[in-house]
Amino acid sequence: MNELGSRGVGIRCAGVVHLYRTFEGHDVVALQGVDLEIKAGERVAFLGPSGSGKSTLLTLLGGIQRPSAGRIFLGDDEISRMSERRLARLRSRRVSTMLQGATRNLLPHTTARLNLKFARLGMDAADRDHAMPETELLSRVGLEGQADQKVHTMSGGQRQRLALACALATSPQLLLADEPTSQLSHGDRDHVVGLIHELGEDLGTTVVVVTHQAEVATSFARTVTMKGGRVGSEGRNGSEYAVIGNEGVIHLPAHMVAEWSPGTLVRIEQEQRRIVVSHPGDEQVVAHPHPDAT
């Protein structure tokens, strides 16, 4: 197992399926056959409509829930089959999860400084000595003047920056953030996103963010768009790529879905390193596989 303070950890999902039961007793498939790999130190934004499975996948990566089927690895450790004791240790030392809504991550009736101390309770003395000092961490998120201010008196932007500081207080190898900029002004949103990239880079932390805001997603070199419980497409440095899933399932880009209604006849042909898609009465569409694709 990697030691605290080392570079970020890689993630691998293999055939991940997750079901949950509604209050009415119906089983709902939230994720169906997710295959995904994220490199150590990479920063990725998850996108998708409500109910697409992006937040569910985030909780599985953090060990908050276990998948119904499939396997999830953080580095060499398979967390989907890990004992509760080891999983709790992992969550306290190697993985930090920011839930949606800053106050869900903080103790509202105590100070910023005490919130950071609470975030570090699971660390041993040696780990705390090597972690970023509390005063420096507060300064990095622009809260050096609010160290002894109680959380419930802070603005929304200040609370969210404190939640980020608490999430990074243990120098985690993986930071998972669910809608970290929701309900923030444009200025506070950009400040928080900038801090996520800056601190993630400095600590070498792998970062996965769930967001519905295009302005947030475009700041990430890689995006993963969830559709119907699967990885539907990926963005790499501004270019969008469809992802071929199990049994050859592929989600068409949104503009093609709007033009080609269900039932449209489509012919797919491969010509060397490109794919040609066409259907009766339409021009051919040429798709180039991602350069890293095998």
From TrEMBL:
Q: Which domain of life is it from?
A: Bacteria
Q: Where is the ABC transporter domain?
A: 11-253
- State if NADP is listed as a keyword: no
Q: Does the keyword Nucleotide-binding apply?
A: yes
Q: Write out the GO MF terms.
A: ATP binding; ATP hydrolysis activity; transmembrane transporter activity
Q: Which Gene3D superfamilies match?
A: P-loop containing nucleotide triphosphate hydrolases
Pfam families for the chain: ABC_tran
Gene Ontology cellular component? Answer: plasma membrane
> Which UniProt keywords are listed?
ATP-binding, Lipoprotein, Nucleotide-binding
What name has this protein been given in UniProt? Answer: ABC-type lipoprotein export system ATPase subunit
Which source organism does the UniProt entry give? Nocardioides ginsengisegetis
